[in-house]
Amino acid sequence: MKHLIRILSLVLALSLALGCTSALASEEAKEDIRVITYFAGSDAWAPTWKEVIAEYMEAHPNINIIDESVPTAGTSDVFRPKMNADIAAKTPADCALYFNGSDAQPLFDSGLYVIWDDVFEQDPEWKEIFYPAAIEAGKTDGKISNLPYIGSFEGLIYNQAIFDEYNLEYPTTWENIITACKVLSEQSDYIPLSNSLLRVTALFDCILLAQVGPEKHRTFLDDSWADAINDVAELYAAGAFPKDAATLSLADVRAMFAEGRAAMEFDGSWVLPGVENNPNMRMIQPPVIPGGTGEEGAIIAEFASGWYMSKAAYERSSATLDFVKFMCSPESMVRFIEVGGYPAIKIAAKEATQPVHVSAAEMMAAATVNETPLNQMMNREVYNKLSGDIVLVCEGERTAEDLLQEARELLAELE
After folding, report:
1. Where in the chain are all domains bearing CATH 3.40.190.10?
2. Residue range 300-346, pLDDT digits in tens
3. Which residue(s) pair with 65 in the sheet?
4. C-beta of residue 71 within 8 angstroms of C-beta of residue 78
5. Which residues lie closer than 8 Å to 85 by C-beta, 6 or more apart?
6. Are the C-beta atoms of residues 263 and 180 closer than 8 Å to each other?
7. Considering only the top CATH level, what class is 154-300+374-414?
8. Is 197:394 a contact under the CB 8 Å cutoff?
9. Which side of the chain, N or C, has fewer Cβ within a 10 Å radius?
10. Cβ atoms 239, 180 nearer than 8 A
11. Do residues 103 and 95 touch, judged by C-beta distance below 8 A?
């Protein structure tokens, strides 16, 4: 009898052990997580992204991150078409770092993605790590459709050494900018303003805000916008732009500036890593333009993208949510911020030491109004039409008023 009891005990212990092993195997079940971001190609954060997801998979051997990231810069934007195709097919990636603003609406309307308000109800402490302003940027129709991640800002970057070489006043006024363009275009081999007229992006956004101010910046296609378009034409007439500015890509003009071949550039925080080793670089708020309604302290700054999570992934397991929480942790966030931008969550970032970063931080600290870029607010087709045809005004083939009217007509057709 004792032997029988012993055997039964061993059988029971073995069964329990097998049960525990089975439970552990279940907990560590292999799972694929499809992720799409714009951290691809020449994007400044792409190398960090690759490192971080590789480390995540090493620490979580049961998780396989399927990285579907694609470029979104300039004319190489395959990111939006891919997202739209996945939505149409109802096959969204498990999570995505995608744009908010007007780009968020199709994702929100599809019903395929989690509303983060619901997740925060279950985990209110997690919500506390995000800055309130960042959370607001991730709302669509009053609900949190995405979790903003890396913030960006735009301004005027300039090379002090070139201004000093030609005894020019720094570009802190519009008059100084025009004077520098004329002098450098006539007396030097430097490009005064290294911006493209093919992709005006930060150039037009900064000049528009400096000309019309925040309220009219949000009043799409207002009559006052003609003045800002004419400001770009004034720069063109002053010899500001590089040769073939109408066909040069953003990558081309940024390279010219980073190489020290140009004096100024209207651009964003994402280009600062490329010029940070030059101690002569500075970033400032574009000066308000005389005669306009621009405001001191008004800058282009926002959280333009955030994390989305599909309902299917959320309902399948906790793996995708765990991955998003990892990406939004201070440990992960600080690695991305070291490359560029500013964080949506509360972290102890390193103090900026390079002069261009110091000046950018001073600009942000002095800002009183943060305005969202136009291409995140306006109808994309109308924005592309308007911004792409500004060069025609520069070349005298259209008037600014004509351009605005054509954009209004296109918007009416689309609506």
Report:
1. 31-149+303-343, 154-300+374-414
2. 988 889 999 999 999 999 999 999 999 999 999 999 988 878 888 88
3. 33
4. yes
5. none
6. yes
7. alpha beta
8. yes
9. N
10. no
11. no
